[in-house]
Structures are given as structure tokens and as C-alpha cells.
Amino acid sequence: RSKADGKGCVSFFEPGMDEAARTRRTMEDNLRAALTNGSFHMVYQPQVDVDGNVPAVEALLRWTHPELGEISPAAFIPLAEETGLIMAIGEFVMRRVFAETAHWQDMRIAINVSAIQMRTAGYAAQVMQLAARAGIDPSRYEIELTETALLGDGPATAENFEILRRLGFSIVLDDFGTGYSSLSLLHRFRVDKIKIDQSFVADLGQSEEVNGLVSAIVKLARSFNLGVIAEGVETEEQRRLLTKAGCMEFQGFLTGMPMPVERVQALFEPHTALRQQA
Ligand code: C2E
Ligand code: MG
Ligand code: MG
Ligand code: MG
């Protein structure tokens, strides 16, 4: 086989692995193609406060695959990160989100950024260019990073972080509590807000320990003077327990599904109309 390939190396792959490698390769090609054939788009999920206002939305990437239909980024971001395609995909996300939201008023927008992007020298400078070209005000935007994104060992991570902050972006620690060093990260990086991971929210009400853990996270956030929001809120009971624990902002299927940009616009169209009349 190796001779027939003419590559002079022996393949140790089982037939099954070969198959997996081919599938992976096909997915990679599809991902690459998706960047140019318009099969990526953004949806926006409301973040709701205790009074039912929507002060912010989170931008979430969607990929409409030719055969598989709509695929969650959870399924393809890891591959995009391994292949380096995440840089181009991340640039698409920034461009698209800035373009779609530049004219919004009184609405904050959260954008997810991958660890690989944060680890890349010059990343924040690129964001600066995109922001300037789109004419957006960075202070209306929140960059959502996971703990892994801040654990990058090179100097680039810290530098990108500082530049993004200086530009005026807020920084949110996503999936808070699931990593290894949440607490030391809070100490090392000046973040603005933490997002309680949905796994804690899902377990709320199942035991006093989980309820206590969530209360402790909220207290921790307060003591660091940080904002706090819970994600994955699906039931009234979860919202009630979160409120009891002192968490006043919610994101989840209970308070709003991720929706296409036109639907978000409709949420505050009346305001826009009034403002234009004035
Ligand atoms: P995340 O940033 O933690 O986003 C929350 C995920 O939970 C989203 O999944 C959202 O659709 C889902 N979700 C929202 N409400 C509920 C709920 O009530 N219950 C449950 N079970 N799930 C809920 P999604 O959109 O599939 O995204 C998955 C992950 O992919 C995101 O997790 C984020 O880490 C990543 N991601 C999404 N968009 C982007 C992007 O533009 N760039 C990068 N680098 N990563 C992205
Ligand atoms: Mg997020
Ligand atoms: Mg999250
Ligand atoms: Mg998550």
C-alpha cells in the first residue's frame, strides 16, 4: 500500500480509521467551502433581566451543511480549531456581526472567540481594523472567552486580551466553573462578567449542594465586582432558584431562543422608529 501510494511510508491505519480520516477530510473541505458559499450565518439569543428587558444578545454561529442541515458549532468548532480554519471563520463572524449590529442602539452584543484566536499574535489588531471599518463602538460588544482561551501559555494571549480591553470591549468568562482554574483566572485577568455554565443551571434544584454552589459563584462574582449571567435557563424553577441565589440575568430557551437577525431587529424596531422621527 505504501509503495502504491509512492510516499514511502507504512500506513498503520485500520480500515475503520481510514474511513474516519476521510470523513474528517470531507468535513474540512465542506467547512472551507462554507466560508465562500454563504452557508454560515449568525443567530442571536436574547439575554433577559428580572424585569424582562433584553439588554443584550449573544451571537451564535450556524452552519447549514449541504446534506446534514443545520449543525451546531459545538460539532465543528473543534475541527476548525485543529485545522486553523477557525481564524477565517472567526473573521467571518466578526465581520458579519459588526455589519448586522452596527446601527443597533441600546443593545449589547456578545461574540464568542476561540482560544486559538486569542493565542494568535496580531489577532486583536485585526479586530481593531474590522471594528474601525465597520464603524462600531466596541463598548457595546462583549467578547466571550472560555477559561481555556485565557490559559494560552504564549505572550500573545495576554497581549490580545489587553488590546481588546483597551479598545473598549468587555470581556466575559464563558462556561464559568467548568475549567481547572476559574479562580486564579479571575485574579489574573480583569474580566467584566462571568457566565455561569449551563451544566450548573441544569442541576439546580437537584440538591442543596448545587444550589449552594451557584449561590457561591454569584457571591464570588459580586465580591470581584463582576456582572453575572446564567446560561441554559430552561425552566421557571431554574429562574426562580437563580434569582434566589442573586443572579439577575438569564439566557436560555425559557426567555428566548436563538433567532435570525430580522427577528431581533423587530424586538426594538418601535424604538428605532421613534428615534428616527425625533
Ligand atoms: P456557548 O457560547 O456556551 O453558547 C451556549 C450554547 O447553548 C449555544 O449552543 C446555545 O444555542 C445553547 N443554548 C442556549 N439556550 C439553551 C438552553 O436553554 N438549553 C440548552 N441545552 N442549550 C441552550 P450553540 O449555538 O450550539 O453553540 C455551542 C458552542 O459553540 C457555544 O457555546 C460556543 O462555545 C461555540 N460557538 C458558537 N458560536 C460561535 C462563534 O461564532 N465562534 C466561536 N469561536 N465559537 C462559537
Ligand atoms: Mg458563549
Ligand atoms: Mg457558555
Ligand atoms: Mg458552552
From TrEMBL:
Source organism, top-level taxon: Bacteria
Domain EAL positions: 24-272
Name the UniProt record assigns to this protein: EAL domain-containing protein
Phylogenetic classification of the source organism: Bacteria, Pseudomonadati, Pseudomonadota, Alphaproteobacteria, Sphingomonadales
Included stretch of the parent chain: 476 to 753 of 753
